[in-house]
Design a protein that fits this description.
alpha/beta, Rossmann fold, 26% helix
């Protein structure tokens, strides 16, 4: 069974290592040129790993470039993994491997197709989320599912916590599925379209706390967009305050607060535990 991998982030490299830990190996890998996306969050270089494991490494600016398609075909790849890669693979790339292309999505598909999966899982108040390995097709996270791992959520789950668990689940899925893939026993299950939901992308400005809203919505937003995301925020005079962590306090306890920074809403108070101030200039914010 010949496997290939496309990635440029640490999570992808961890999954590549997991393939070897599970008894598989790679004959081909693709990543970005050294001078591309150097500021991309999590960007790493896979040269050393590929060299140590005798993996043919191609560097190209786009997964759909002709040289990538040609390399996949010449390598005789059965399955290609694409993990931690923002570019959308063309039908040519999807059909180049003999068996297809496998991707990962940090939800329990068909729930949460689309973008910003970690923040939305918290904002939507889900009791559980997870990571799905699926065979890619031309739709948005619509292909048949190969395997899933569930991740329970609680009323105190933060994006930081969930991000770490999602990363670990990616590696666990590789360990779980590689033996099945190598023995041609990987089972693909069609997604139930009646249960499908599509989550839209989010922008940094979507993290603004609505001061005239509910304390519960504000607390949830803070947990959903804390690190590694840009953070929830509000404006106070000439200051933009980014709130990384806050704790709900019932409005009846408001009078007991002293020497603390807080946000008061009609239905409660948020005690700010971790925050930073950005001072604005020119009265423009």
């Amino acid at each position: 069974m010949k496997l290939g991998f496309v990635t440029c982030v640490q999570l992808g490299l961890s999954c590549m290592q997991a393939i070897y830990d599970a008894g598989g190996e790679l004959v081909f890998a693709m990543t970005l040129p050294d001078d591309k996306a150097v500021n991309k969050s999590g960007r790493i270089y896979i040269d050393d790993f590929c060299r140590a494991n005798n993996i043919n490494l191609l560097k190209s600016s786009h997964v759909n470039n002709p040289e990538v398609l040609q390399a996949i075909q010449l390598s005789g790849i059965d399955w290609l993994f694409i993990v931690g890669w923002s570019q959308i693979a063309s039908i040519g790339v999807l059909s180049a491997p003999k068996m297809g292309v496998l991707g990962m999505h940090p939800t329990l598909l068909p729930v949460g197709r689309g973008r910003a999966a970690i923040p939305w899982a918290i904002l939507n108040g889900l009791e559980k989320t997870g990571v799905s390995m699926f065979k890619m097709d031309t739709g948005v996270d619509t292909g048949p599912v190969a395997a899933q791992i569930e991740i329970p959520l609680s009323p105190i789950t933060t994006a930081t916590d969930l991000y770490s668990k999602v990363d670990a689940a990616h590696v666990a899925l590789i360990h779980k599925t590689i033996p099945l893939l190598l023995s041609n026993k990987l089972n693909l299950v069609k997604q139930d379209e009646s249960k499908a939901t599509l989550w839209s992308g989010r922008k940094p400005e979507d993290g603004e706390i609505q001061l005239n809203g509910s304390v519960f919505d504000a607390e949830k937003l803070i947990r959903a967009v804390t690190r590694p995301y840009p953070g929830a925020f509000y404006f106070e005079e000439k200051t933009k305050r980014i709130v990384w962590s806050a704790k709900y306090i019932h409005v009846d306890n408001f009078e007991k607060l002293s020497d603390v920074v807080f946000l008061k809403f009609d239905d409660g108070v948020l005690l700010l535990e971790d925050y930073e101030d950005i001072y604005l200039v020119n009265d423009c914010f």
